[in-house]
Amino acid sequence: MGQVVALDALFNDRRIWRGQAVAAPPSAQPSGHAALDAALPSGGWPEAALTELLLPADGIGELRLLLPTLARLTRAGQDIVLVAPPYLPYPAGWRQAGVDFGRVHLVDASPRDALWATEQCLRGGCVAAVLAWPQKADDRALRRLQVAAETGQTLGFAFRDQREACNPSPAALRIAIEGAPAQLRVLKCRGGLAPAQPIAFPHPGPIPRSLPRPHHVPHPRLPAGSTPAAVSVSVSQSQSQSASVSMASASMSAVPMSALATSALQ
94 versus 11: which is more confidently predicted? Predict the structure, then answer.
């Protein structure tokens, strides 16, 4: 049996290196929720990374969590993209929350093409944030989104079912949104330990409405010379396997988001 040596003696002889905790650099992307920012190691959303939001049901407060960030980004003249959302945003409600809706773009894609479109939007680096609702995304697919966010230096947000919490994820941040009581539970955060206690997330008031997304929305024709308040892009991976999604591209049909909302009511 070897000789027992005091650990302090090894440290004093500098025969063992003692690692020092390094604080994560402060984030330039605050969430807009003071309690959440205080609980995250960087004080905000992880930059150029994927954040996973786990939901028990739609409408639990997921957009309310992101609206301060989306308002800040769009007011600064930066664009955001929603890839295949399950509901059509209600423009008046988003504007009431401070979002410049002229900077909001909607990509309409099938479940299979939505992952591809999300990856291209993240990788392109031409938008500030991408919101996606991936279906049946495995670890490999999520890793591609994480790498794309790093490459494009873009904020990525993926809304997924809370049952996915038991599966591993490469996302830099994972937050479960709970409704009863209304709170946030940080499951994973890069650069530090996830807080043990949930974060209160009370409902402050009316949530901007969304409209149920129909199976098919007719594309009304734009008046000549008009500028859409927000752009809807229909994308198919089979159309181009190698082309990147460009929000400035005119090769795909574009309609005002307000017109889509009106069509959904009919």
Answer: 94
CB 261 within 8 A of CB 88: yes
CB atoms within 10 A of CB 143: 15
Domain tally for the chain? 1
| Closest among 97, 95, 27 to 61, alpha carbons compared | 97
Copy the structure tokens of residue 202: 């009370």
d(CA 64, CA 99): 12
CA separation for the pair 40, 261 (Å, rounded): 36
Rounded Cα gap, residues 31 and 94, in angstroms: 17
**What pLDDT sits at residue 34?**
94
Q: What is the CATH number of the domain that holds 45?
A: 3.40.50.300
Residue 130 has a pLDDT of 98
Instruction: Tell me the pLDDT band of 210, cut-offs 50, 70 and 90.
Output: low
User: In terms of C-beta density within 10 A (0-12 exposed, 13-18 middle, 19 or more buried), how is residue 134 classed?
Assistant: buried
Antiparallel, parallel or unpaired: β 80-83 and 129-132: parallel
* Cβ-contact 56, 179 below 8 angstroms: yes
The answer to whether position 17 is within a domain reads: no
- Weakest-pLDDT range from 19-28, 50-59, 144-153, 230-239: 230-239
User: Would you state the structure tokens that stand for residue 184, as one six-digit string?
Assistant: 């946030």
For residue 10, pLDDT beyond 70: no
Residue 179 inside a domain? The answer is: yes
pTM confidence score: 0.74
**All residues at 6 or more sequence positions from 64 whose CB lies less than 8 Å from its CB, including other chains:** 203, 207
Domain presence at residue 21: no
For the record, the structure tokens of 172 come out as 């830099």
Q: Which domain holds residue 33?
A: 28-216+232-265
178 occurs within a structural domain: yes
DSSP state of 13: T
Separation CA 134–CA 165 (nearest Å): 15
